[in-house]
């Protein structure tokens, strides 16, 4: 296998992994009410309340809030439907780098910027919305862990670009 083919195969494998994770994280935003009930039941069965009472209190509080919103204000959950949809749409954007990584490296760079943006969002909006700092750290970890495969993909795309020169991009008119 040539260096170019091996790089392309690796790039595509990392992109598929990233897209699968993006789709899964988006798809889980649809059934939040049910997922949180299942999570609470699972944590209770694992004796989490005795070992991590702050976590259990937070899960109970969020579940109560979602139950109330679902029963009395279901339109509020429409926002999480849009969150899920955004994840799915962003995942589709990665078809460009999958097809032609060098020309579409900007999608990967854009996603890296989005991962970096998670940190200030969590640090600013978390306290405003009453989110515990430890939960904001969990939220920020999505940006930290998300940027790792993207960085690997970008590095490999740059190596691929160095192997075979591509024609200059045609400027938009």
UniProtKB/TrEMBL annotation:
The chain crosses the membrane at residues 75-95, 107-128, 134-153. It comes from the Bacteria. The keyword Transmembrane helix applies. Keywords: Membrane, Transmembrane, Transmembrane helix. This is Cytoplasmic membrane protein. It comes from Streptomyces spinosisporus.
């Amino acid at each position: 296998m040539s260096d170019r083919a091996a790089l392309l195969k690796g790039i595509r494998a990392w992109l598929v992994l990233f897209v699968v994770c993006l789709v899964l994280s988006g798809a889980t935003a649809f059934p939040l009410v049910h997922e949180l009930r299942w999570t609470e039941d699972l944590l209770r069965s694992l004796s989490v309340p005795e070992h991590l009472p702050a976590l259990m209190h937070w899960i109970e509080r969020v579940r109560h809030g979602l139950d109330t919103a679902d029963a009395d204000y279901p339109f509020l959950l429409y926002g999480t439907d849009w969150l899920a949809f955004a994840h799915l749409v962003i995942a589709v954007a990665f078809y460009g780098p999958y097809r032609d990584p060098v020309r579409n490296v900007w999608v990967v760079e854009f996603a890296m910027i989005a991962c970096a943006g998670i940190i200030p969002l969590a640090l600013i909006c978390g306290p405003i919305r009453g989110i515990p700092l430890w939960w904001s750290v969990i939220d920020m970890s999505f940006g930290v862990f998300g940027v790792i495969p993207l960085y690997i993909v970008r590095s490999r795309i740059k190596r691929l670009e160095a192997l075979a020169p591509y024609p200059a991009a045609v400027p938009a008119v």
